[in-house]
Design brief:
Blueprint: H1 9-18, H2 23-29, E1 35-44, H3 45-57, E2 61-63, E3 75-83, H4 84-94, H5 101-115, E4 120-123, E5 128-131, E6 136-142, H6 157-169, E7 174-178, H7 191-208, E8 213-216, H8 220-228, E9 233-236, H9 246-253, E10 257-260, H10 279-296, E11 304-307, H11 316-324, E12 337-338, H12 344-350, H13 358-370, E13 375-378, H14 381-395
Parallel strand pairs: 6-7, 6-13, 7-8, 8-9, 9-10, 10-11, 12-13
Antiparallel strand pairs: 1-3, 2-3, 4-5
């Protein structure tokens, strides 16, 4: 006898097939083998009580505040507790009820669909990119004098292009080109200076490499110029908040966009109050708003990638929490990109300067893969490619 650790629908399916369960039995049992907890915030007590009664009637439950039963409080947070079968049945039962339960039902059904989704297809102006079979590696090329890890690395464009060719050879699936540092305390550069740093580099890389090039910028005019020279993805750390024209560029060129969460701006993001009432709730709410904005701007819903923004307006404790609970972002139904490479929080835990953070970075890469990341943005491509290959073998087989 042993405890059976089921982490996904595919694992439940594999387990039942292995013991030769009847196909009709498999269809009925798989949803019963996975437990799920769903948090809803600010629910009216009468609605929470109805939810609790409905879940109890089918074998699940809803956790609510003590004062909600007698309505001595106005609102309560609620946690729906049960198997996927319970929650799915609950969503069906309340789909025709009043007091906002119909909307709650729809949101639950969408969430259930999102959390089992792991395969995605991005479409760039030049190709189709499939995500989900293995973890993709994005190699970093910062042509800046002041980036925290690799600033001032290149003396000329040709050196940066050769570096990109090397990263491709080491296993990079994407090359991310940036011309403006986003390290804590950094100041923005002018569009003219950023253009001089990145456009010749993008142009040179497109002549020499086969993998997609992404442009790391918050400026619509730089994104447009880079795409004109062959860049295929926009990586915007502001989630298109700093330049209102960015959605128009992404939509018109039909490029995938990476939306990153950041509290504040790079110059001040690690200063002052960077606390969160609920880090995960606030970050997920931020992404919902930015995804809606992107859709409204005409961007293909299937071409949106999210990046929780490790180190951007967050403490070491916050960064660790994002890694530990990364699977919660599956709620959004989007591919997840993560960048932990050589970052300060790793040094705070393991000690040492930048060159000594490679092992700590490897641990974060493994944790990210095991918790649902699709793309990892790294400096040490050759090393992290091996780490990701091993982690993929564990997670995906």
């Amino acid at each position: 006898m042993r405890y059976l650790y089921i982490t996904s629908t595919s694992e439940a399916l594999e387990t039942l097939k292995r013991i030769d369960v009847d196909p009709f039995g498999i269809e009925a049992m798989v949803p019963k083998m996975e437990n799920i907890n769903i948090l809803l915030e600010g629910i009216e007590c009468k609605v929470a009580n109805i939810m609790k009664q409905e879940m109890l009637s089918i074998g699940g439950d809803v956790a609510v505040a003590r004062g909600s039963v007698d309505c001595s409080i106005d609102k309560t947070d609620a946690v729906i507790v049960g198997t996927i079968k319970h929650v799915s049945k609950f969503a069906d039962k309340v789909s025709v009820q009043q007091f906002g339960l119909k909307e709650i039902s729809g949101n639950i059904k969408k969430l259930l669909s999102n959390i089992v989704k792991d395969d995605f297809i991005l479409r760039t102006p030049e190709r189709k990119i499939e995500l989900g079979n293995r973890t993709m590696i994005m190699g970093i090329i910062n042509n800046t004098p002041d980036s925290f890890s690799d600033g001032g690395m290149f003396n000329c464009v040709e050196e940066a292009v050769e570096y990109g060719v090397r990263l491709e050879g080491e296993g990079a699936d994407f090359l991310d080109v940036g011309g403006e540092s986003s390290r804590p305390g950094s100041a923005p550069v002018s569009p003219e200076e950023e253009r001089e740093r990145v456009i010749p580099l993008v142009k040179g890389l497109k002549r020499r490499v086969k993998v997609p090039v992404s442009i790391d910028t918050t400026k619509a005019e730089i994104a447009r110029a880079a795409i004109d020279e062959g860049a295929e993805i926009i990586n915007d750390i502001s989630a298109m908040r700093f330049d209102e024209k960015m959605p128009e560029v992404a939509a018109s060129y039909r490029t995938p966009v990476i939306l990153m969460h950041m509290k504040g701006i790079p110059k001040t993001m690690q200063k002052g109050d960077i606390s969160y009432r609920s880090l995960m709730n606030e970050t997920i709410r931020f992404f919902r708003e930015r995804i809606e904005k992107a859709e409204f701007g005409g961007i293909d819903i299937e071409n949106i990638i999210i990046d929780p923004g490790i180190g951007f307006g967050k403490t070491t404790k916050d960064n660790l929490k994002l890694l530990k609970y990364l699977k919660e972002f599956k709620t959004l139904g989007k591919p997840i990109l993560l960048g932990t490479s050589r970052k300060r929080f790793i040094g705070e835990i393991t000690g040492g300067d930048l060159p000594d953070r490679i092992e700590g970075t490897a641990a974060t890469v493994t944790a990210a893969i095991m918790n649902g990341a699709h793309i990892l943005r790294v400096h040490d491509v050759k090393f992290m490619k091996k780490v990701s290959t091993m982690a993929d073998a564990i997670v995906r087989g």
